[in-house]
Structure formats: C-alpha cells, structure tokens
C-alpha cells in the first residue's frame, strides 16, 4: 500500500461530471487530483481501425448486464472522447416527469429555465454551435427528406464540432484524430492542469473510507496500460471533498462497495437506472426509390450509398417531443452512424426466412451496408435498472484485456418502456417504408438484451430521499462532503442526447461544492470564467 498524501479535492472520473468541477475548483485555488481508470489518449492515438490495442478497444468499456448493456468511455475525458458531440438541450417537459411512481422525479429547484444559464456556460466553454443544412451529411439529408415526404419535420442537431477542422471521416466515435470534436481534452482538462490539477490515468477507484478528521480516504488500484485486468499497484489519497463522477455504471458500484467503510448508503444508490430509453432501427434503403421518390442524388450519380460518409448525428426529428403528449409516448428520432463492429452485429435483416440477426439473409444486407440508414430512438423509460452486489474490484468483472466486462446491472423493461419503443419503431417504419423507400427493422434485443450509450440515473438528485440518492446540490445523503456529478445524477431519461445536460448540471453543482469545501477548511473560491482552449489534445507534461 502506498499512501499518496492529502489534497483538497479528489475527483473520481474525468468525463463531463468530473472535468468540469476539477477545472472550476483548481482555478479557484483548490488542490485537485483526478483519478481516471482509463488511459490518456490524444489525437495521435485515435487511429481508424478496430485492431486490438487501438483507441477503439482502449477508450471504450462495454459492460454486459442482465437485460441491459452499457457502452461508455474509459479514458481521460470519458464520454466526451467517444461521443458524437450532439448537444441538444433537454425539452422543458422532461423536468416535470413523474414516471410510474407518480411523483416528481426532478428536484423542484431544477427546471429548464433554471438550467438554461448553465447550458449557456457549457456552450461557451466547449463551444457548441448550431448546424445548418449545409453541415448535414448525406445520411442526415436522406433522413430529413424522408421525414418531409412523410409530412414530418426534421432539424439539424447542434454539435460541439469545429466544422472547419472536420474532415467528415465519421470515426469520431473512436476519438477525433483531427481535434475537430470538442472533447474535454481541448478545454476543461488542459485548463484544470494549467491551474495545478493533477490527472492520474489508469487509476481505478475501489472504495471510500473515513479519516479521523472527518474527511475521506479514496482507495484505488493502478492497472496495466495494456491489460486492464492486471493490477500494478494500490494506493490511497485523502481529501475533505470527494466528487464521484465515474459514470452511471460505475459510480453506484463504488458507493455500494464503500458502505462497509462509510456506513449505510441511501437506498436509491444503484437503483432507478435509466438507459435513456434507447433503441436503434436500421433501414436498408432502396437506391432506386431514393432517387425516384425523394429526388436525391450525389455528384457521382449514386442516389445515396453514403452511410459512412460524414460525421455522427446531424439531423433529428423532434415531432414527438411535445409536452402535451402523455408520458412514455415522447421520443426523438435521430439519424446516427455506428461504425462496423458496433452497428453490424445487432442489425436485423428484414423479411428473413431464418434467424434475422445472422445467417444468409443477414449476409445479404451486409453487402449493402453503404445503403443503410440507422435511426436512434431516445424515449422515456421507467428507470427499471437495479445494480446487484458489487464485484470484488472495479465496477464489473472484466472478461478481456480491454473493453469487455460483465456487471451486476439487472434491467427488465416495463410495459411503459416497451410501449414507447413500439411506438418509435412504428414511426420509423411509417417514415422510411413509405412508397418503398426502405425496409426497416429494430436492432435485436434477443442476443444481449437492451443497450445504451447514455446510462443515467443510478444515483440521482431529487427532493424525495426514497427516490433519490442525492439532494438537489448533488451531495450524497448522509455523507457530507461527497458529491456525485455525472450522468448517474440525472433523474430520468431525457429523450435527447444527455451530454449537454450532464455538463450543465455539473456546472450548476460547482458553487455548492465550493461552499461545502470552504466550510471544510479549503481555501477556494468560485471561478466562472470559461476554460482556456488548447490548440491540440496533446498530453500536458505535468500529469501524474
């Protein structure tokens, strides 16, 4: 055991929920250490392949649960490195959701009007820009044209992308080698380091315990940079303030394991997990009908055949984001690109005579992969996920050297969730199968269950202690000085991409954390200035 000393603030995780308070607190004079279980990767590491040891296997964590599977970031910068940079604000109605429990899920102190100034702060810091139709990709334009043909509306999606630097290579899910995607590697993280924060990659936090002076001791393992199953060392670090931001699939596990040393956890820790109601549909486009019905063509004479060209989601239909509609019937439909290896396995073949997700029929549609269009559903689920007892180490039992693990999350979709998925699937078919444009099938749940790239709500904020692990300032109930600021704090599915909301909530939490830190003897002040921008994601020299 190596005692690594004391600081003012320990931040667990370096995604939006971790890097934002790390920068703000370091800029305000606090001594900050960030512990990140993944590696520190930069633009030069983000290759365009899926070979073992590439960014595509090192930067992701695919955690298989019982009925729910989570794909998330596992690197410095967390989900901001592997997200598609789509940054819409949550619709106003989502803050009034009651779910099947019939009680308000969000704290009364938080609604869209209250959160808008914090959204504005994030938009300036990354920054986020509104796309116009000239920025929409071939697949986004196809989706917009199909929506128009069906009498629906569609909109360009706001994004955190430097459009001048983007090459439309469509590899942004595996990081951006051109630094066009405005991940945290270009703003909050280098700004935090410039103010003295220390980032320690390959540090996997196991649990927390108390110190004699009322602070906390964070216990961690260090892991091998190639095989994450190999523990290369152990250590502790003490601080009066701990910010848990390891992600909605890891933060509750760390807190569950800490119960033996910290005392009883709130009952909502590790419960009420939401997969953001996510589901995917794949359309196999009929190129002739795309030309004849929609009147689309490319300069080379092809009608479409451009699934892989461009960037992630650029166009969405938000017709169902209507606050007058009943809960569980509201969802967004967003055009999306999943690169080979992610998007091909679970896609089903329409009209298959045998198995729909593998076999001869599946092989035939794979030949036409350039004519695919994937539609991403984000709906209102019922917060059905529950985490079982934590594993011996980490947040899940690692199966392979990198990327793959099995966790204790159990998810059984309720009738409410299933009805939302069915309505969204029917909408996709209605839009894309009109006049023979395509054949549409959802990704199968039969192989591994449901799946999400936006895990939420496993340690959520709220007013009701029975439903929420955190108060409305993000402080863990019964454990003053511990705050949770990542996606696990979001009370429910948002019906849109959640990164912007997670970041806005993290910004909103910082003044309260500063106040708590000062009360615990930390010499710190709140700094509202946006982070300075780095020209490249090159790793700073002053890191742990």
UniProtKB/TrEMBL annotation:
Organism (species): Actinoplanes subglobosus
For this chain, the family text in UniProt reads: Belongs to the GMC oxidoreductase family.
Q: Name the pathway.
A: Steroid metabolism; cholesterol degradation
User: Which cofactors is this protein said to need?
Assistant: FAD
Metal-binding in keyword set: no
Top-level taxon of origin:
Bacteria
Q: Which Pfam families match?
A: GMC_oxred_C, GMC_oxred_N
Q: Which UniProt keywords apply?
A: Cholesterol metabolism, FAD, Flavoprotein, Isomerase, Lipid metabolism, Oxidoreductase, Steroid metabolism, Sterol metabolism
What is this protein called in UniProt?
A: Cholesterol oxidase
InterPro entries linked to this entry: Cholesterol_Oxidase, FAD/NAD-bd_sf, GMC_OxRdtase_N, GMC_OxRtase_C
Report domain Glucose-methanol-choline oxidoreductase N-terminal positions. Answer: 68-274
Q: Which residues form the Glucose-methanol-choline oxidoreductase C-terminal domain?
A: 451-506
Q: Where is the signal peptide?
A: none
Q: Might you give the EC number(s) for this enzyme?
A: 1.1.3.6, 5.3.3.1
């Amino acid at each position: 055991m190596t005692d690594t000393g004391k600081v003012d603030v320990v931040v667990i995780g370096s995604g939006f929920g971790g890097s934002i308070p790390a920068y703000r607190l370091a800029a305000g004079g606090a001594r900050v250490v960030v512990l990140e279980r993944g590696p520190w990767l930069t633009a030069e590491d983000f290759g365009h392949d899926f070979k073992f040891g590439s960014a595509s296997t090192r930067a992701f964590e695919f955690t298989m649960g019982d009925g729910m599977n989570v794909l998330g970031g596992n690197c410095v910068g967390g989900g901001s490195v592997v997200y598609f940079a789509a940054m819409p604000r949550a619709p106003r109605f989502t803050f009034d959701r009651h779910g099947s429990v019939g009680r308000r899920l969000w704290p009364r102190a938080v609604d869209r009007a209250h959160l808008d100034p914090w959204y504005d702060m994030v938009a300036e810091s990354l920054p986020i820009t509104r796309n116009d139709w000239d920025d929409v990709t071939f697949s986004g334009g196809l989706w917009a044209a199909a929506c128009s043909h069906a009498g629906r509306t569609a909109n360009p999606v706001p994004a955190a992308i430097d459009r001048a630097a983007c090459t439309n290579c469509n590899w942004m899910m595996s990081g951006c080698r051109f630094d066009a995607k405005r991940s945290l590697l270009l703003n909050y993280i280098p700004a935090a380091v410039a103010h003295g924060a220390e980032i320690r990659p390959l540090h996997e936090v196991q649990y927390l315990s108390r110190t004699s002076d009322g602070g906390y001791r964070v216990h961690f393992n260090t892991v091998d940079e190639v095989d994450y199953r190999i523990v290369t060392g152990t250590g502790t670090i003490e601080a009066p303030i701990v910010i848990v931001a390891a992600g909605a699939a890891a933060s509750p596990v760390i807190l569950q394991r800490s119960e033996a040393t910290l005392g009883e956890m709130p009952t909502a820790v590790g419960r009420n997990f939401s997969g953001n109601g996510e589901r995917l549909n794949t359309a196999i486009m009929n190129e002739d009908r795309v030309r004849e019905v929609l009147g689309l063509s490319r300069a080379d004479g092809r009608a479409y055949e451009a699934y892989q060209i461009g960037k992630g989601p650029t166009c969405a239909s938000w017709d169902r984001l209507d606050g007058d509609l009943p809960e569980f019937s509201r969802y967004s439909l967003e055009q999306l690109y999943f690169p080979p290896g992610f998007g091909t396995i679970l896609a089903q073949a329409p009209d298959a005579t045998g198995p729909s997700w593998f076999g001869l029929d599946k092989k035939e549609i794979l030949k036409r992969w350039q004519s695919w269009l994937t539609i991403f559903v984000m709906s209102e689920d019922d917060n059905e996920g529950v985490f079982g007892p934590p594993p011996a180490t980490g947040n899940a039992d690692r199966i392979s050297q990198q990327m793959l693990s099995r966790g204790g999350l159990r998810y059984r979709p309720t009738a409410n969730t299933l009805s939302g998925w069915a309505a969204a699937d029917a909408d996709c078919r209605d839009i894309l199968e009109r006049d023979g444009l395509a054949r549409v099938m959802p990704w199968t749940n039969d192989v591994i269950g449901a799946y999400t790239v936006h895990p939420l709500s496993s340690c959520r904020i709220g007013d009701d202690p029975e439903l929420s692990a955190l108060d409305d300032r993000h402080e863990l109930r019964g454990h003053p000085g511990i705050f949770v600021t990542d996606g696990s704090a979001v009370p429910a599915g948002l019906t849109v991409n959640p990164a912007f909301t997670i970041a806005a909530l993290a910004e909103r939490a910082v003044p309260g954390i500063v106040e708590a830190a000062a009360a615990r003897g930390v010499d710190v002040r709140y700094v509202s200035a946006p982070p300075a921008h780095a020209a490249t994601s090159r790793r700073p020299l002053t890191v742990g």
